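Re: the request from the purification team.
They wanted to know what the chain is likely to look like in 3D before they choose a buffer screen. I agreed to run a prediction and write the result into the notebook, where they can find it.
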Amino acid sequence: MRMSRLTDRLATCFFWLAGCLIVLLLGWFLFKIMVEGLPQFSWHFLFGKPEEILAGGGVGPQLFNSFYILFLSLLFSLPIGVGAGIYLAVYAKTNRFTGLIRISVEALSSVPSIVFGLFGALLFVNWMHMKFSILGGSATLALLNLPVLVRVTELAMRAVPVSYWEASLALGSTRWQAIRRAMLPSALPGLITGVTLTAGRALGESAILIYTSGLSVSRHFPDFNPLAMGETLSVHLWYVQAAAVVPDARQIAQGSAALLVIVVLIFNLAIALPCRMLQKRLTGGK
């Protein structure tokens, strides 16, 4: 009995220490990024155009392209990913074919993003003649998002108690009505988490977009042309650190890093909070 209590206390202390260590590391990284990046913020830096040679360039087009590419990629991947996840969770029968599909989805979700970037460069940039463009980058980013969205949707739907499904069908609803009225509202927290993680990963993605959307921006700002080149904030951060010749490249990189962290945080909150309110409305405030 004493040995069990001692083991329990040791395990509790270990997990508390591990959790505190992770929080401290994250806090230190965020503090360092913000302390170095926030002083670089100005109206011109946030909304001005970049410079290739002179100092004092901004990141306005890159910030716009980051959200534009993210929006298009989610527009492509969300309907397909969520629909495929619902099919696997509700409609698909358990057999070797569906098992193969699940294994393939899990394997694709662990493929390095650089592989998707090379595939997108071959398929969209060369074979489909999109060249370096916002559309090509968005389509390739959608391919990266699809396996994660499919798997997250399936797991979220399977986490809903079977009694919800059975009770809805017993009351005379169709399968689609049971999915829309009973299962989706209950699975919404898991879906929100999956979409938020996917969107955050897409906002910080650079390897894919280097090969598909390019390292330059349009001369017009904002430019909604999907065939224009679309360097994003994360790609610009890599570029100014690796190959830029502007004298204030380090300051631009520090400001871009802080801005990227803030953008991801705000975007996650902007998705999570309204969706939580929607879930409460759908479930009657429970």
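For the purification team: The chain has two domains: 1-40, 44-282.
Please add any questions underneath this entry.
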